[in-house]
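The protein record filed here:
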Amino acid sequence: MKMNQDLKEQIIQYAKKIGIDKIGFTSADPFLELKEILIRHRELGYESGFEEKDLDKRTNPKLSLENAKSIIAIAIAYPSKIVSPPKSTKGEYRGFVSRSAWGLDYHLILHEKLNLLGRYLKELVPSAEYVVMSDTGVLSDHAVAERAGIGWIGKNSLLISPEFGSYVYLGEMVTNISFPEDQPMENQCGDCTRCINACPTQAIVSPYQVNGKQCLSYITQRKDMLEEHWMEKLGNRIYGCDTCQIVCPKNKGINSMHHELTRPNPELAKPLLKPLLTISNKEFKQTWGKTSAAWRGKKTLQRNAIIGLAHFKDESSLPLLKEILEKDKRPMIRQTTAWAIGKIRGQQAKEILESVKFKEKEEKVLAEINKSLKRLANQDIADSPNKK
């Protein structure tokens, strides 16, 4: 056992050397309690659809590595604030990207660190086997990190660490080497319910249970046309949502800027909305390609940018939106644009919708145009002075 304790200490020291902020060790035993939670989660229809479908794979590490004995969990902190953030001005409105997507794609960061750790383990123990994963892997990063003593799971289902709050990227390495286990940390949320109260869509349906389909972070990543009530809630979010993290007392005053690759490019963290609508595929790949916000593609971010312009009621964007409504080949984008023009309101908006009405062939887009025109007509009646 002492040999394994010494090996563990060597791994911990190497992890610090390569820039891993927290590391914890746990067994590769199945996550039995988690499985019961996931079964219930599925029965209630709370899965977003991004999760691994096989609940056994999600809760049994030995299905990822047959001889698994331990899991090494890691955390890397990321920033929560932008130095001198750019501001929205009239006609030059900006969107907002979730903090977790500000720097280089965290999958790349985590996998580099985990593979360095794995290679170091094999140097020390040539017979070592390992599998690395994060976010897109089959195991629950939060459950692994909690059991490995990195932090506790908050009522918003995010992992909270004492040092870095919930602003941490999580990953793990399943290995056939047995390590002494770290102890889980006591939950420190107490009776606080700020995240539950602040959630814009009430997606945190109860402490530690989130309806994935209702979470704005998920909604910003959907590829289809959004329902109107979600567009109303979206505001100027381009990718992700940080509301439950912003209000969390455990995140107060935390801004981890010590990793260069996680630092934000202010123009991508708070991008101008109108230029997003005309960006070419090549420009998008060059500008956004190395961020985690790019994984859902240009179209999804453009749809959200259109919704953002509607949120600001940006009349200066109407000529551009008119061009999109007339020429864009993507029905979902045209449909969203028709909704946005109606939300911006005004005579110009009405004229644009009327001019396109008889040219549009797509049924859903035409229905949205007519819906916006009807809304504008009702608003005109509501805004006109009462006549006796």
Residues 2-79+103-175 form one domain. The radius of gyration is 24 Å.
